[in-house]
C-alpha cells in the first residue's frame, strides 16, 4: 500500500510499529487508533483501508478533504480541528461517532446538514459531543448565527452536546 502523503504514511507506520517495508491492506485492517496531530498531513488517501479505526486524531494538519473517511464506519472518536475543511459530508454515514471535534478558524464549514443527517440516522445522539468552530457558527456576541440555528436545534434535539470552541480552544456552551 502506498500513501501519497508521506506524513500520513509515517503516522500509519508508527501505528503499525513498522518503520520499513511494504504495508499490506491486511495490516491496515489491524489499526484501531491513529494519532497524527500536527504533522502537516494534506492527503488522507489510503486511510480508507483502515476499516477497523475507532479513534482518529488528525488535529492541526492541512487537510482539505476527508472523503477517505466516509467508509470508516467503526469510528467513534474523531478530531479534525484546526484543519482547512469546508465539507463534512463524508461524516454523515459514520453512525458510531460519540466525539467529533471540528474547531478552528481555518475550517470554513457552513453546511452542517450532514451532521444533522448523521444524528437523524441514529448516529450522533445522547452522550455524543460535537465541538464546532465559532467563526462559522456564532455571531460576535456569541449568539448562534441565523443560518445555523435550525441545524443546531436539530443536534440538540437529538441529544448531542454541542460545544463551540474559539481558535485558542476556549469553549462556549449554551
Walk me through what this model shows.
- The structure is a single chain.
- With 174 residues, the protein is an alpha/beta fold.
- The chain has one domain (39-172): Alpha-Beta Horseshoe (Leucine-rich repeat, LRR (right-handed beta-alpha superhelix)), CATH 3.80.10.
- It is 18% helix and 14% strand.
- It contains four helices and seven strands, in the order H-H-E-E-E-E-H-E-H-E-E.
- Strands 1-2-3-4-5-6-7 form a seven-stranded mixed β-sheet.
- A hairpin with a 5-residue loop joins strand 6 and strand 7.
- Helix 3 packs parallel to helix 4 (149-157).
- The chain is globular, with a radius of gyration of 16 Å.
- The model has no long low-confidence stretch (mean pLDDT 96).
Helix share, percent: 10-25%
In total, how many domains does the architecture comprise?
A: 1
Distance between the termini: 45 Å
Radius of gyration: 16 Å
**Number of DSSP helical runs:** 4
Give the uncertain stretches in residue-range form.
Answer: none
Q: What class would the helix/strand composition place it in?
A: alpha/beta
Shape: globular
The largest β sheet comes out as: 7 strands, mixed
Mean pLDDT: 96
Strand content: 5-15%
Reading off the top of the CATH hierarchy, the class is best stated as Alpha Beta
Q: What's the assembly state of these chains?
A: single chain
The named CATH superfamily = Ribonuclease Inhibitor
Would you identify the CATH architecture? Answer: Alpha-Beta Horseshoe
Amino acid at each position: 500500500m502506498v500513501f501519497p502523503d508521506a506524513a500520513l504514511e509515517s503516522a500509519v507506520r508508527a501505528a503499525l510499529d513498522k518503520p520499513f517495508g511494504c504495508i499490506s491492506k491486511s495490516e491496515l485492517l489491524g489499526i484501531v487508533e491513529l494519532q497524527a496531530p500536527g504533522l502537516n498531513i494534506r492527503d488522507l488517501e489510503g486511510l480508507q483501508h483502515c476499516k477497523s479505526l475507532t479513534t482518529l486524531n488528525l488535529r492541526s494538519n492541512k487537510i482539505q478533504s476527508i472523503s477517505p473517511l466516509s467508509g470508516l464506519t467503526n469510528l467513534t472518536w474523531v478530531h479534525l480541528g484546526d484543519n482547512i475543511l469546508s465539507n463534512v459530508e463524508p461524516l454523515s454515514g459514520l453512525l458510531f461517532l460519540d466525539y467529533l471535534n471540528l474547531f478552528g478558524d481555518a475550517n470554513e464549514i457552513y453546511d452542517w446538514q450532514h451532521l444533522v443527517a448523521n444524528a437523524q440516522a441514529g448516529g450522533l445522539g445522547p452522550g455524543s459531543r460535537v465541538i464546532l468552530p465559532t467563526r462559522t457558527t456564532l455571531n460576535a456576541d456569541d449568539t448562534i448565527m441565523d443560518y445555523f440555528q435550525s441545524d443546531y436545534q436539530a443536534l440538540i434535539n437529538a441529544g448531542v452536546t454541542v460545544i463551540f470552541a474559539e481558535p485558542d480552544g476556549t469553549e462556549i456552551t449554551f
